[in-house]
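User: Thanks for the earlier help. One more: peptidylprolyl isomerase. Can you show the sequence and predicted structure together?

Assistant: Of course, both are below.
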Amino acid sequence: MSRAAPRSHILSRLPLVLLLLLLLQAVGRGLGRANPAGGPLEDVVIERYHIPRACPREVQMGDFVRYHYNGTFEDGKKFDSSYDRSTLVAIVVGVGRLITGMDRGLMGMCVNERRRLIVPPHLGYGSIGVAGLIPPDATLYFDVVLLDVWNKADSVQVSTLLRPPQCPRMVQDSDFVRYHYNGTLLDGTAFDTSYSRGGTYDTYVGSGWLIKGMDQGLLGMCPGERRKIIIPPFLAYGEKGYGTVIPPQASLVFHVLLIDVHNPKDTVQLETLELPPGCVRRAEAGDFMRYHYNGSLMDGTLFDSSYSRNHTYNTYVGQGYIIQGMDQGLQGACIGERRRITIPPHLAYGENGTGDKIPGSAVLIFDVHIIDFHNPVDPVEVKTLSRPPDACNETAKPGDYIRYHYNCSLLDGTKLFSSHDYGAPQEATLGANKVIEGLDTGLQGMCVGERRQLIVPPHLAHGENGARGVPGSAVLLFEVELVSREDGLPTGYLFVWHKDPPANLFEELDLNKDGEVPPEEFSAFINAQVSEGKGRLMPGRDPEKTIADMFQNQDRNQDGKITPEELKLKTDEDQERVHEEL
């Protein structure tokens, strides 16, 4: 209670002469409750019947305190109570604004401590009392609970409760922060919490948007750090308080968890976590990239991951298909590189955020693994690993029948296919659309025994859709070795003569001279020409199947035999009959 308060245990505003008389009477008469020895009390009796476990601060002279009390006489009759007025006493201790007994009884108290004070008359209202309220020579009993204490010399008190092992950045003036908090009075009474609203408190620091004490208490914090910030009222809401939840002259306690921090002037921050050796190419705007990522907020909360979908994220870089910060952060990366990309909100999803996982004004952190990238105009990259020691006069060309071994993998080393798994070389005719275009191109010009490394972009491989076992838009890495090569046949030919054919071809075919050639005679004749080196069949096919196709082409009426009228050389056939050949 203050001097001005009516019905209080504090000295009233009495005339000076009357006041002196009161004090003289109190001292002279020595009135009051007898002490245990039988005489009157000489000082305040203090019973500390509830002492909190933690007492970081005790009341000292000159401190400002806020407390509740019940005041009674020795018989238990109540004469005053702050509870009845629903108003705490808020006053400075030890400067004469309280009765002497209360001044003394509050010294050394802790917040939330409860005391019973017995105040003898000469330390209370003496022999005069308070008219209509406190009789003369009354011993007063007070039950007091201290709820707040501070001093004008106080500053903001900061206690770090948890500091993350890594602190990439600390809060500075003009930064924008997102944090959670629980706000209580010094006695633990909660007045506000961001958690109940389901969102962080977002604001600028040092720009006048916060109470001064919070502005100071947030400085130097790291994302993920927890702090306890105690703010004296003159750096909080002062004499007026705030609404019905923060009373006047209240110290405030905030338990704060900093979620993230950025500055409007921030740019994308890059940190290389792993750089593979031999990086010969870096991603540029216009490249198409496949990468894996984990996306988290600054406090470590994961909001998305390509790994959870078991699929890379595939996109063009620098073309506006992704957020601006990621567009910037991916450029300059190497295949196989792992990098951390920290993106401020103005280069991410801004003040509004997106969906229910990325809040407004959130800093985003992406841990990225570059799987591969290419440009839509990339050719096949060919690197010779080894060549045979002997001179190579003939190399593979379109139409040639070749046999080769290969290992195929993705650029991150993931093995896809290998001819060695089948125990035999792969067979193909170059230029016949039997293999993907990039591999066909890379095999051309090879010598038998040569080994090459081929990097095939997806538009020359399996494209956007991929194939069985091959992801869409994947760059493929081949290691190939040419095992053998045979000259191919001209387009449309199944058999060619090494020299001129016989002058009377039908008579040579008609082995039994009956004027017609059945399949058996035709097959025997062609096989004989091949074995004698007079001609050769298309390589890479079953010889009997090729001979059967040749017979089918010549048996024009499909009666199972060839007559002289039906037999024609390929060079003599009509141009429209592109499938008739010998």
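User: Great, one quick takeaway?

Assistant: DSSP finds nine helices and 26 strands in the chain.
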